[in-house]
Structures are given as C-alpha cells and as structure tokens.
Amino acid sequence: xxxxxxxxxxxNGGNGPWPPEASTLTDPEFDLVISSLIPxxxxxxxxxxxERESExxxxxxxxxxxxxxxxxLAGAVDRREPWGVWGGEVFVDGVVVPRKRxxxxxxxxxxx
Length: 112
Ligand code: SF4
Known about the structure:
The protein has a 3-stranded antiparallel β-sheet with strand order 1-2-3. The chain is an alpha+beta fold.
C-alpha cells in the first residue's frame, strides 16, 4: 500500500498536502519522506510482531509517536489484522486485545 493511502486517513483539517513540501516531491521521494517519520519503517519491523511482552510494549510505545497512528489503527480494525501491533494496539485473531499473552500459556477462561 502506498503511504499516501494511509495518510489520506489523517485529519489535517483540509489545509493542503502534508507534509507541506510534499507537493513538489515525486511519489518515491514522498514515500521516503513519510517513511522517515514512521517508527515501524525506521526500526526493525519484527518488533511489531514480537512474541516477548517487553518487545510488544516497546512497539506500542513507538507507535504512540507515529503521525499516522489513528489511520493505521482504523485500517487494521477494518482489515481485521490477524496479529501484531498496529496503531499502538495489539491484534490477535482480528481483534484488539489488552495485552499479548505468550505462547503455550493456558487460557484464562476454559474453552467450551
Ligand atoms: S502506528 Fe502503524 S504505521 Fe505507525 S509505527 Fe505503529 S504500526 Fe507503524
């Protein structure tokens, strides 16, 4: 997905292109500028799909500073992302969960 598609979901008040210099950039240049602002493009992407809770929390913290967080989360909810950290939230089986539980742990509630 082109990053501008993601950015289209941002509420920038209809004040023109964002970032402002974007209107003079080619598509690849624009994507490069935007990528430089997005934490999951600047760090190891595996962090967003980590198993360790400490790493998941690190990904969530990095998302909090992301300029496209709101749109990212909305898109992930729409797509019912099967897993990973999206928009600062943890997804498991297409829904947001409060925290990721490690593999092999028993369910809190017995399965029916
Ligand atoms: S909010 Fe989305 S785009 Fe931004 S760092 Fe988190 S996962 Fe990446």
